[in-house]
Amino acid sequence: MAVAPAVPPRGLPEPPPEARAHAARLTARIAAEIDAAGGAIPFERYMELALYAPGLGYYVAGARKLGPAGDFVTAPELGGLFAQCLAVQCAEVLERSGGDTVVELGAGSGALAAGLLAALEAVGAAPRRYAIVEVSPELRERQRATLAARAGALAGRVEWWERLPAPGSVRGVIVANEVLDALPVHRFRIRGGRVRMLGVARAGEGFGWVELDPEPALERAVRAVEEDLGRALPEGYTSELCLRLAPWVATVTGLLGRGAALFVDYGHPRAEYYHETRRDGTLMCHYRHRAHGEPLVLAGLQDITAHVDFTAVAEAGAAAGMELLGYTSQAWFLMGCGLERHAQALAAAPERERWRLAQEVRTLALPTEMGERFKAIALGRGVEGPLAGFALRDERHRL
Ligand SMILES: C[S@@+](CC[C@H](N)C(=O)[O-])C[C@H]1O[C@@H](n2cnc3c(N)ncnc32)[C@H](O)[C@@H]1O
After folding, report:
1. What domains are there in the chain, each with its CATH number?
2. pLDDT by residue (tens digit) across 378-399?
3. pLDDT exceeds 90 at position 316
4. What is the pTM of this model?
5. Is-contact 101 128, C-beta < 8 A?
6. Best substitution site from 179, 251, 286, 287 to test ligand 1's pocket, by max atoms within 8 Å of Cβ?
């Protein structure tokens, strides 16, 4: 049966010719893999290639992604407040763990690293080293440039880890903002009571969706979700599941001999993630500040993300011997870390800056902006709670 090609949603800006040429190269690379696989690949593999294919994927090839001139803006890109708040949490964990290291996973433009180092220095808690783990060579270069321009002498404390050090060898804090949502996910559908795995096939000049027999691990994981929910997912229900999340959380938290890992991302507790009304999953793509739900177009030119199942993060942490130290919305987390105080301290700034600052606070904290959609979760080893970010409201019971 012919596969229907995915259609670009209306209203997306037309990519310029060089971007089109880039997309055509990545499309050919993915098409070759589809042919070699006999006609289809799992969506998870498509997402991995679209984001990370060497030299071609969205995160590893050239174009500017983050910030006003890119495709989307993250909390650290809005201004300095997110980093200042996070620094409060990092300083507390560094102190309680007797740690000397901050590890940042997926550091984007380097804005958070520069802000965190400055804010930690300001309270006399600058770490001995600030290690970045980044899969994208292009973003590593951008991080170096940002830190050279903005971190002064503290830039000398930053190192990039190509390989992770031995498990248990780090004492301190791990931070990751919007990284879990960038891990490739499986997409599945319930059809005739069975779990089907969504795959990607060639269609016309591009790609289209097909249903495949599921990988056994995916089928088991979907059934485990149903068991945990206490109900079967309804017919036609389509969603995502990240099989890579648990091993990744285990690997990164395994670095900690003592300390805490803090993940901030958009997502939900499992019962909400797989709510009956969310019948088409959580995939989201960003191209030039337009959000839409079709990942099979603009290969290599757009970001592709899925929301995070925070119950899965907590479970992965528990399986890796980590204690769940807190879970709350970004708004409550930032307020627990003194968002209002930090914003007020800047209120003496010129009027234009004050206006920008008010805007930044709104975007970070309003429920309709990042405040409720984004959540923070902390997993600790050998560190006593409660932590500042979860002191005002802790919703661990919802996971
Ligand atoms: C959405 S961006 C967020 C960047 C930054 N944390 C921020 O908030 O602006 C995702 C980042 O994670 C990186 N990344 C994706 N998968 C990764 C992995 N497995 N390990 C480390 N970094 C990863 C990407 O290259 C990119 O820097």
Report:
1. 75-182+246-270+307-392 (3.40.50.12710)
2. 999 999 999 999 999 999 999 9
3. yes
4. 0.96
5. yes
6. 179
